[in-house]
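Quick review question:
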């Protein structure tokens, strides 16, 4: 476990260890985990240049003002978009690519009518589209080149290869299916961009607005249960943000090419074990406390690789992108 004091110590050195003007893109940052992480990053970094994407204009205006108060030396650009739609993702990426030649960090925490299963689209396809579109800018960065996607690391499970979109995958199996697809897709991307590090993490129990706008008895029960047990289990918003910033900036999670590994390690902290079992492999499945996922996940991922699932998942993904937009990436 990486303790909170260790996390805070590393984050306190971001401004001195990393250059000023880090360019970061936060997707899904107008509430919950994305918002908490954005604010901690802004507070810790020197002259940050931030793009953050979300659906609510009101929230975007509020967060922009709050970021200015936290760090008046930064630049904050809100982009309003419904990123469950792949075409909207492309529009956001075109906007960013028209203004920047490189980015240091892509942080994905998003909470379709294009023929995709909606939940799968939001969790997997739209996030992956952001990565493939912005990967050239990440590869062009110096000192830090990282992707963090927040979902179900450590919860990887069997993949239903006849139903990648999970239309008929039982609800209780969907998290494992999507978590594995996420981790395997990051392994495919790391093959293309070994100079970029990729972190898939599970945030723990955090108070978010995940059920906002939801209706029905299941949502009602979920909200009532969380009111009772949430305070006993959930980490604070600030700790959540600090831990996500640590995943986004620490040299504990380097790329295969360690030249841009992040804030140097201190106090005997070791480089994390990657998804292939090797230390510092460039792709990481990480629990809420900064530890790499356990041996059970490693064995499962190994079996999925033996079934050629890295290539099969990636082939399916690019086929869907081409079907929807005519392009594998913009």
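Suggested answer, residue by residue:
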């Amino acid at each position: 476990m990486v303790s909170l004091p260790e996390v805070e110590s590393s984050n306190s050195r971001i401004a001195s260890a990393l250059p000023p003007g880090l360019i970061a893109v936060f997707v899904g940052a107008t509430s919950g985990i994305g918002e908490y992480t954005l604010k901690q990053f802004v507070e810790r970094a020197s002259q940050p240049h931030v793009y953050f994407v979300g659906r609510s204009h009101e929230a975007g205006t509020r967060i922009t003002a709050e970021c200015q108060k936290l760090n008046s030396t930064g630049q904050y650009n809100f982009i309003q978009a419904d990123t469950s739609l792949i075409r909207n993702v492309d529009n956001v990426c075109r906007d960013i690519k028209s203004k920047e030649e490189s980015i240091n960090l892509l942080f994905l925490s998003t909470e379709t009518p294009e023929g995709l299963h909606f939940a799968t689209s939001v969790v997997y396809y739209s996030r992956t589209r952001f990565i493939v579109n912005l990967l050239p800018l990440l590869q062009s960065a110096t000192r830090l080149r990282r992707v963090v996607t927040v979902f179900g690391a450590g919860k990887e499970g069997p993949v239903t290869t006849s139903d990648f979109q999970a239309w008929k995958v039982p609800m209780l199996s969907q998290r494992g299916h999507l978590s594995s697809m996420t981790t395997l897709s990051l392994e495919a991307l790391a093959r293309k961009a070994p100079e970029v590090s990729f972190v898939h993490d599970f945030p723990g129990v955090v108070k978010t607005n995940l059920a906002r706008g939801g209706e029905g008895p299941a949502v009602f029960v979920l909200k009532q249960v969380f009111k009772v047990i949430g305070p006993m289990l959930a980490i604070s918003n600030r700790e959540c943000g600090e831990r996500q910033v640590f995943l986004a900036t620490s040299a504990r999670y380097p790329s295969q090419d360690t030249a841009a590994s992040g804030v140097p390690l201190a106090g005997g902290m070791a480089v994390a074990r990657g998804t292939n079992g090797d230390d510092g492999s460039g792709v990481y499945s990480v629990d809420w406390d900064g530890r790499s996922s356990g041996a059970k996940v490693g064995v499962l991922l190994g079996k999925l690789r033996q079934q050629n699932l890295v290539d099969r998942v990636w082939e399916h993904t690019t086929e869907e992108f081409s079907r929807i937009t005519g392009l594998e990436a913009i």
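Why it works: The two ends are 39 Å apart (CA to CA). The first helix runs from residue 4 to 12.
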